[in-house]
Amino acid sequence: MAFNPSDHPHNRYNPLRGEWVLVCPHRGKRPWAGQIEKVREADIPRYDSNNPLCPGNKRANGEVNPHYEHTHVFINDFPALMPDTPLPPESNDPLFQMQPARGTCKVMCYHPHSDLHYSNMELDDIHLVIEEWLTQYQDLGKKFLWVQIMENRGDMMGCSNPHPHCQIWCSEFFPNEPRIKHENLKSYYEKYKKPLLQDYLEKELIREERIVYENKEWVVLVPFWAFWPFETMVLPRRQTQRMSDLDDEQKKYLALMFKEFTSKYDNLFDCAFPYSMGFHGAPTGEQFKVDMPFWTLHAVYYPPLLRSATVKKFKAAYELLAQDQRDISPELAALRLREQPTTRNLK
Fold it and tell me: What stretches of the chain show up as alpha helix (H) in DSSP?
């Protein structure tokens, strides 16, 4: 019997992490005995006097938001990282090591209206979001080694506030995920003399089977090594190391990508599609001006949904104790997303 990647279990290598992902596509074809139901989307008011992210409202620390008309950024009222945290003591014991964890955390509101998100925002407003990201990145990147722009969307991802917003966590230390990517990207470049993600994108554009969305400047695909059922990666067509390197054309088409691609997500299960997403690029701080040709700026989306708006994948059992595993193949996931329209069409 000949091997068929659509039917037979196999491992796929993730070169960004140096790890393997177990793909079991035959399990995705098994009958589902659980409940599948459509979620009735909550009616989100345009303005809520009790929402601390709305314009003119008081936040937990007593500060009052300005009556902002576009984006608004402020220091998180409950920050995970702070710039003046005392330094931990040094230890000679290899089993009890600590290191400093200084930084800052900001919240960025995308828009004054709570009932909007990328798929139903105006392109001009999305462009303003991107411009504010760049402003924050440039400013914070002068001081911090890592600037993590990230967004959680939906209750399922722990986002309790429906107002469109993201968080920006900055640290003087190199967090695990980007540090591991940094090491593997550098190793690949030294061996093959090409940026890993640009080399990968060129090959995916030839194969086409995992491409979900593309425009003049950006490509969205389901990675060959994806773990989450409908995980995607956003890559620039032109080699770009950091967010601060984006030119006007890239920013213009990035805004279009956010609007059209997130519409595909929303249309897939007819819901406001939950996810965690964020950008990774070359480190900043003292390395901000250092040329790192092995780094390619990219965004990743990690959505939990598996079969419907209510059926999610859990990282549990084998995945916690042994190795990441997925059922639906990346190719099938890409096909289902590719088939969705690029305009939001929630019923």
Answer: 123-141, 176-192, 196-207, 248-268, 318-321, 330-338
Question: Is the alpha carbon torsion for 302, 276, 313, 271 positive or negative?
Answer: negative
Residues 234 and 262 sit within 8 Å (Cβ to Cβ):
no
**Cα–Cα dist 275/302, whole Å:** 5
Long-range CB pairs of 153-157, under 8 A, 24+ apart, other chains included: 153/117, 153/272, 153/273, 153/274, 153/275, 153/276, 153/277, 154/272, 154/273, 154/274, 154/275, 155/274, 156/274, 156/304, 156/305, 156/312, 157/274, 157/275, 157/276, 157/304
40-48 contacts: CB < 8 A, separation 24 or more?
41/271, 41/272, 41/346, 42/162, 44/114, 44/115, 44/162, 45/114, 45/115, 46/113, 46/114, 46/115, 47/112, 47/113, 47/114, 48/114
pLDDT tens string 36-72: 455 556 689 999 999 999 999 999 999 999 999 999 9
Q: Is residue 212 a contact partner of residue 338, using CB atoms and an 8 Å limit? A: yes
- The predicted-structure confidence for 305-339, as pLDDT tens digits, reads as follows 988 888 888 889 999 999 999 999 999 999 999 99
CA–CA distances in Å: residue 333 to residues 56, 107, 209, 307, 309: 42, 32, 10, 11, 15
Work out the number of other CB atoms within 10 angstroms of the CB of residue 315: 12
Written as six digits, the tokens of 177 are 């995920």
Q: Cβ contacts of residue 5 below 8 Å, gap of 6+?
A: 23, 25, 329, 331
Active-site positions? 165
| Helix, strand, coil share (%) of the chain residues, nearest 5 | 30, 20, 50
Range 291-298 average pLDDT? 98
Q: Can you read off the two tokens belonging to residue 187? A: 């190793």
